[in-house]
Structure formats: C-alpha cells, structure tokens
Write a structure and sequence with these properties.
The protein is about 85% helix and about 0% strand. With about 350 residues, it is an all-alpha fold. Belongs to the autoinducer-2 exporter (AI-2E) (TC 2.A.86) family. Keywords: Membrane, Transmembrane, Transmembrane helix.
Length: about 350
C-alpha cells in the first residue's frame, strides 16, 4: 500500500509539473509582463526601505514616490539611450560595409569555404526588405505594448501588496500557520530584493568601467554597448560571455588592425572576470544560493519557456522556487539539491531583528 502511495504521488508530481510547464509556455506573454512588474516592484520596495533607513528624517510616504521616480527614471533613461543609439548604428552600417566584407572574406578563408566569400550585399539580398521592416515594426509595437501592460500591473501590485497581510490572516486562521506563511513570503521578498540590489550595483560598476575602457580605446557608440552590457549582466554566466563576444565582434568590424580589438577583448573581459568572480560573490551572499549547474540549467529552461525575458528572470525565479520547495517535507530534498550549500532557507535578517526586538 505504501508503494502505491509513493507511485501515485510521483505520478501526480509529473502530471502537475507538465501542466504548469504548458501553462507557463502558452501564457508566457502576460506572465512575463507580470513577472517584470514584480521585479520592478521589488526594486522600488527595496529602494524605499533603503531610503527609509539611511535618511531617517525622510517620511515613509515620501520615500515610496521618490523610489518610484528614481527606478522608473533609470529604466526610461536606459531605454532612451538604447533607442537613440540604435538609429545611429543603423546609419553607420553603410560606412562599415567595406570592413564587413573584409571580415567575411577572412572568415570564409579561415573555415575553407567553397567558392567566393559572401558579401554584405549577398546577405542582405537573402532577406525581404519589406518583410524585415514589417517584423521590426511589429517588434517595436510588441515591446511598447509589453511595457504599457507591465506598468499597469505595477500600478495594481502596490495596493495588492498593502492588503496581503490582512489576506494571510483570513487564509490562515491558525497562528502558527499564518506566521510560517508570512515567513516564506518575507524570505522570498528579501532574497529577491538582495539579488536585485547586488546585480544592479555590480552591473552599474561594470557598465561604468566598460564605458571608460571602450571610450579610451575609441569604440564608437560606447555608451550603447555599455548599457547593453548592463542588461546582459543580469543573465548569469552566459551574459558575461555574451558581453565580451559582442563588443569584440563590434571592434573587429570597426578597427582595421588587431591592436584595438585585443584591447576591447582584454578590457571588457578583465572587468567581467574580476568583478564577477571576486567582488560579486562576496556581496551576493545568500541572495543567490544556487548551484552553478542549477543556474545554467535554469537559464536553459526559463529561456526556452519565456525567451529572453526568461533568461533575465531565470535566477530569481529559481531562488523563489527553491524557497517554496524547502517549506514542505516531501519537496525539501529538491530545494537542498538546488541550493549551493545545502541550506535553501537561510535566516531572515528582518525576522531576526523583529524577533530580537520582541524579546
């Protein structure tokens, strides 16, 4: 009988996992928008807490709108820089056509391709310009629509978060269960806020150092590539590699000699390696307590389900899943395997302070 119970439980878990995966995939558009709204809310809430603690004279009701303005202004600034520089890059493509043809010829010879080397004109001819223009227009329209719905979700999350404590009182009548549920929510919230804080600070440092490096070497549109690297650093492991490869490829197209190309490769790679391997792990602490293998696997799975947004959210979503799984005896072993140190639920600093204060 016990064997049947285990078998039924295993089958139920498999079916439930499959249904959840299908739901996440087919409803990925609204879910990704809602997830991005949650991330923005956590960033605003974390900055509000920081302002409230660091500036005691600043009232809480003023700290929240100030944090809201700061976070949304940063997002708007980054969006403006990216859009403005994309237009400049597109305008420079014809100027780089000769150099691009040289690079294509060198690559063709290196791989030993048959016939003559393809040119930029050959590659462009393979695409339908009208279709390409339509696809670009649709992508811009979809991005604007996603941004609008994300802001709408964000506006409704704030009042919903304010009454969450009262809802927990109605859901969990038992005091112990209510305290346990509040503890889980607090751990998830703090882990996400710490992770976002560390990633943002580290990304800003890397962005500033990368911009200085690229500007000194003379890479055009250095501000754009630096801001792009800012976003890529939110993708664990793969983002750092993509940042180095992308800037090196751009330098290879712009510069006729290998000296500046090597400089870009070494400069960007050094900042990514030093900060990513020595500084960031010390600051991250328990905010990303995931095994390195789990991070790569999560990146592949969430990227497949939700695309590029899933790649950005892979680490925080997996941390959230790990904390939830750790609360149940039947799934705690999964949370332990996901964690880096076998402790999927570290003590909550806020809870510890509140408990010590009550004592």
């Amino acid at each position: 009988m016990a064997t049947m119970d285990v078998s039924q439980r295993g089958a139920l878990w498999i079916v439930a996992t499959g249904v959840i995966a299908v739901g996440l995939y087919f409803f990925r558009e609204p879910l990704t928008q809602f997830a991005m709204a949650i991330i923005l809310w956590l960033a605003i809430d974390g900055l509000t807490e920081t302002l409230d603690k660091r500036i005691p004279v600043l009232p809480r009701w003023l700290a929240l709108p100030l944090a809201l303005i700061v976070v949304l202004s940063i997002v708007a600034l980054i969006g403006w820089v990216v859009v403005d520089n994309i237009a400049a890059i597109i305008g420079d493509l014809t100027r780089y056509e000769f150099r691009l043809n040289q690079v294509l010829s060198q690559l063709h010879q290196a791989v030993g391709g048959p016939g003559r080397a393809p040119t930029v004109g050959d590659l462009v001819a393979q695409f339908d310009p009208a279709r390409l223009t339509t696809e670009i227009g649709e992508s811009i329209q979809n991005a604007a629509s996603a941004a609008m719905f994300t802001l709408i979700y964000l506006a409704f999350i704030f009042p919903a978060a304010g009454v969450m404590s009262a809802k927990l009182d109605f859901i969990f009548r038992n005091k112990a269960q209510r305290a346990a549920a509040a503890d889980v929510f607090m751990r998830i919230r703090e882990s996400m806020e710490r992770y976002l804080w560390v990633q943002t600070v580290m990304s800003l440092i890397i962005t500033a150092l990368t911009y200085a490096t690229l500007a000194i070497i003379g890479l055009e549109n250095a501000l754009f590539w630096s801001f792009l690297i800012f976003f890529l650093n939110y993708i664990p492991t793969i983002g750092s590699i993509a940042a180095v490869v992308l800037t090196t490829a751009v330098a290879l197209v712009q510069f006729p000699t290998l000296g500046p190309v090597v400089g870009v490769f070494a400069g960007v790679g050094v900042w990514q390696f030093v900060i990513g391997n020595f500084i960031q792990p010390r600051m991250t602490g328990d905010s990303l307590n995931l095994s390195a293998v789990v991070v790569l696997l999560a990146l592949a799975i969430w990227g497949t389900v939700w695309g590029i947004v899933g790649a950005f959210l892979a680490a925080p979503m997996t941390v959230m899943l790990m904390i939830v799984l750790a609360q149940f005896p039947t799934t705690r072993w999964i949370a332990i395997l996901l964690s880096a140190d076998g402790k999927p639920t570290p003590d909550s600093p806020r809870l510890s302070k509140s408990e010590s204060g009550s004592k």
